[in-house]
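User: I'm new to structure prediction. If I give you an amino acid sequence, what do you actually give back? Let's try with this one:
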Amino acid sequence: MARSPRGARPAAPLLEADVQAESFRQVRNAHRMELAEDYVELISDLIADAGEARQVDIAARMGVAQPTVARMLQRLVRDGLVVQRPYRGVFLTEAGEALAAASRERHRVVEAFLLALGVPEAIARRDAEGIEHHVSPETLAIFAAFTQAQAG
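Assistant: Good question. You get back a string of structure tokens that encode the predicted 3D arrangement of the chain. For your 152 residues, that looks like this:
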């Protein structure tokens, strides 16, 4: 096996261009969706807790400024995931509720999988927040089956 100039082993061989391009496309799509998923999941949680989701509360929990939330809410309205009511806050559409529920379930499955592997709870919760947006349905099903087998 050829060595690099510094004597280190080279990385695995390059994938075929179309295979690698598809992988990068999937990651870009996941990145585009992850913020929307985080927002609708948080909005759903706030509504369940307080009966509504206010922009100020979303900003505080997301750790961003209110103008950032306002821009994201405009996108979510445009995408048909939320409705804003003057002096009443933000509410999810049926599509927004479905996206929040799917995101919450993916998070639950990934976190349970990490816990079954022995990852400490706080780390599993934090890591699941990133992994949930990038895991394929096939991998998620395997995570769920593994977790059920460990419990069972």
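You can read the tokens as a compact description of the fold. Here is one thing that stands out. Strands lie at 82-85, 89-92.
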